Amino acid sequence: MNEERRRELAQFLRDRRAGLLRAEHGLPPIGSRTMGLRREEVAAFAAVSVTWYTWLEQGRDINASRQVLESIGRVLRLTAAEQAYVLALGGHGAVPAGGPATIEDMPPHLQALLDAWDFPAFAVAPDWNIAGWNSAYEGLYSHISEVDPDGRNLLWLVFTDPQLRQMLPDWDTTSRNFVAEFRAEAGLRLGSEAHTALVDRLAGASAEFASIWAERVVLNFSSRRRVFIHPQVGELVFEQHRLVPSDVPDLHFVLYVPTAGTPTRERLAELSAQSAASAG
């Protein structure tokens, strides 16, 4: 476990311990304080020594087995996403730490798959760089083709591109979800040069990102409703889904499906017609 992952694990455990309700663990208040367990209480419930747990929360260089981290996670009432994050920080994640952070070239057969999708779709690498997209996505977010490759990162664009921000009426919720999902996927890569550089760059460019990142919220990706306000055709409403190609699992496809009962399909067709007329 590298130093940055140890520090992150320590702070994450401290934050979650401080947020626990004592009554839910059958413990009385400490004076007027009803929130937060003591380290010795967590250690007792998890069946580990107080000294060892203290060292873990201090970020010391100790080995934590999967079984012990899972036991601590149960005491801290971690969600499935938070438990997976803790395991990844402890070196027990499913993604190899040495895997590529980004995809330099979109595999042609996967670009062809994106192109065959009728609705907006794009592919993201583990560092959330956008590796490829289809024409429908470019119709939705025309700026994507103009962005320098170094800035073609989904988080970077969400927090720094005013055009994209204007298109998202629920930007506050969307941005928070993205940061929480990115953190959930970052576990084993935390502390790598590329990951640190990206987070530092984002924090330097956006105080909002820095504030949300410091909250340490962790969420797994979930299919959900996405709303865009397009400058030419107005409101577009989609269901957002994600697929992982089995032959290149480091790439994730994000696919948008027009929501039934909305004029989204028709408005996408209008956008496509406008684009074809401009090209002609």
UniProtKB/TrEMBL annotation:
Pfam assignment, any one: HTH_31
Domain MmyB-like transcription regulator ligand binding: 107-271
Protein name: MmyB-like transcription regulator ligand binding domain-containing protein
